[in-house]
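agent: user wants the structure for AhpD family alkylhydroperoxidase from Actinophytocola algeriensis. delegating to structure tool.
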Amino acid sequence: MDARLNLFGSPFAMKFLKHVTAAGRVIGESTLPAATQELVRLRASQINGCGFCTDMHTKEALAAGEDVTRLNLVATWREATVFTDAERAALELAEQGTRIADAAGGVPDEVWANAAKHYDEEQLAALVGVIAVINAFNRVNVLVAQPAGDYEVGQFG
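agent: tool returned. relaying tokens verbatim.
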């Protein structure tokens, strides 16, 4: 299976993705817990049907020490007992921010307020950033039908 467009062979695509990647690196410098960042990336990728990003962030989370049970339950986080209240708030914000077109009013105030109970302003900014960046990557990969399964931990530095 080949992608519709070779992102790595296109000078324009590489230039564009370099900037999106740089935005993602800034988020990594925040105080938002790394585990929360990966859970959010994984959940948004699942919702968007991005196999490449689902593969990537599952493998990166495992390599960083995340528990396989938690990763297996991300899609069903509401019923799972393995997530903290803060992680649940982040996952809810990620779902609402990813499905923004499904709600006429955007992200509900109560979803934001719940996240704000668990994260300070800088962490909320990082959470918004991680949701925005993963959704951008998901859309690129889904648009070009980027194949999934071959990602290797640390592949992009």
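agent: one observation worth passing along. The chain has a mean pLDDT of 95.
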